[in-house]
Amino acid sequence: MQTIPDNPPRRTRFIDGLNLAIRAGRAVGAVAPARLEKDILLDEAVDATGLTDFGDRWFERPMEVLLDSIRTEARLNPAGEFAATNQFRHVLRDRLRTQWWFERHPEILTRPIRRPVVIVGPMRSGTTRLHRLLASDRRFSHLRSFETISPVPRPGYEEVLAGKKDDFRPILAERIMKVARLANPRTLTIHPTGPYEPEEELGLLVASMWGMKHEAQWHVPTYGRWCERQDAAPAYRHMADLLRLVGWSQQSSSLRPWILKTPQHMLDLPALLEVFPDARLIFTHRDPRQVVGSAASLAWNQTVIYSDHVDPRGVGEEWLRKTRLQIERMRAARDAIPPDRMIDVHYSAMDDDWRGTMARIYRFLDLEMEPAVPGMEHFIDRSRRLKQRPHRYSLEQFGLSPQQVNEQLGDYVRQYDIQVEGADRQATGAAVAMN
User: CA torsion angle for 379, 385, 387, 389 (degrees, to 10)?
Assistant: First the structure.
């Protein structure tokens, strides 16, 4: 068995070179300093688009908290500041264009979102694998990766629909992914994707400056804890409207149920169910030692790109805490959900017998599985090619031990009869199956 180094991996030299280039550019006045301030960013978005309507201004409060947390806690390097500035600019311009589309095509907001199928599980618990299996069934609607990066079409999209020009958003997504590979190729080993791959709706929550994506990207604990105390319903209402916009841009039937998933739902189930009251819920479960180790590794591999001051022990402690909170919130929210609206699926069951497990899910959804099997087989085949190297990690890299995780989450294992993964796999985290 290949051993894993005691310390988490370093980032590539690409970011070090980019940091030097940005510092040099600032020294001679060729690169402007980062201005991560709310009013400046809002004004820039208005100037860039010529639009003024941001929709529900609720997003400004989480934005203020996030920006303050970035300035005081994240300790971003120059590349991190550059990336953060561009991210805020992109999100704010998209918010303005969202309202422009709604005014231009008011029928978008009348599109129903009926009985969505929502996969709910901790980070790294098999949600991506299950989401992509279901997304291979053409009877469902799903987001593609370029649509979670850029859910809002650019003005002139009618020409794309008419076949007169190409949609720029997949091109932009491919460029972003190329930069991500240069910055840290492990991030795409951990979560393999491509512009057209089925993807979660976390980017639609980011449109409201909401969600764990920020916490997995930057060290922003004050922001994270602030969000944990807020009602997320406004962010979910905006997410639903963005789904309507994406469905319209896909020209897909509103009768097709959406397949949704993001670990954020573990924290926000009351808001999710307020906005999607007829949702059908698939809860995924995995050995929490694997969940915590893999989540910490994912967060580390992203955060280390943007900051030169990331503490692996702090990352481990935070994602153990965050995983525990996700599970506590999920367990509390389930008490109000009718049993016939939810089903539990174990990571180990998908590993052992994906066909049998999917058959049980399709019975829950009251659908015939046979029409979907060719698409699912194609996905299984393609995912093996897409993920050629396993994601390797250990709890010890982040100052944690299996005993610590067991002490805090052992009752979760017992309540849901979760299979504890074998000693070899526990030590390496070398699961080839997609998380």
Answer: 150
**Residue with the two structure tokens 């794309």:** 160
Sign of torsion, CA 384 296 281 119?
negative
CA dihedral 92, 98, 99, 102 (to 10 degrees): 180
The pTM for the full model equals 0.92
Q: What is the pLDDT of residue 422?
A: 64
pLDDT at position 5 is 62
| 394 within a domain of the structure (yes/no) | yes
Structure tokens at 346: 């174990």
User: Based on the number of CB atoms within 10 Å of its own CB, is 151 exposed (0-12), middle (13-18) or buried (19 or more)?
Assistant: buried
Residue 188 pLDDT greater than 80, yes or no: no
Q: How confident is the model at residue 83 (pLDDT cuts 50, 70, 90)?
A: very high
- Residue 274, both tokens: 């307020």
Q: State residue 429's pLDDT score.
A: 45
What DSSP string runs through 211-266? Answer: STHHHHHS--HHHHHHHHTS--HHHHHHHHHHHHHHHHHHT--TTSPBEEE-GGGG
Of all residues in the chain, the percent with pLDDT exceeding 70 is 93
Number of domains in the chain: 1
Paired with 342 in beta bridges are: 281
Residues 279 and 272: their CA atoms lie apart, in Å, by 9
User: 115 vs 10, which has greater pLDDT?
Assistant: 115
- Total number of residues shown for the chain: 435
* CA dist., res. 354 & res. 206, Å (int): 32
- Under the phi-then-psi rule, with left for phi > 0, alpha for psi from -120 to 50, and beta for the rest, what region is 118? beta
Tell me the residue range of the domain where 240 lies. Answer: 15-428
Note whether residue 6 is domain-resident.
Answer: no
pLDDT digits (tens, 9 = 90+) for 219-263: 999 999 999 999 999 999 999 999 999 999 999 999 999 999 999
Residue 193 lies in a domain: yes
**Cα–Cα distances in Å, from 385 out to 2, 150, 188?**
22, 26, 13
Residue 435 lies in a domain: no
H helices present in 50-124, as ranges? 60-69, 78-104
Report the distance separating Cα 152 and Cα 97, nearest Å: 7
| Residue 407: CATH number of its domain | 3.40.50.300
Asked if residues 358 and 282 have their Cβ atoms less than 8 Å apart, the reply is no
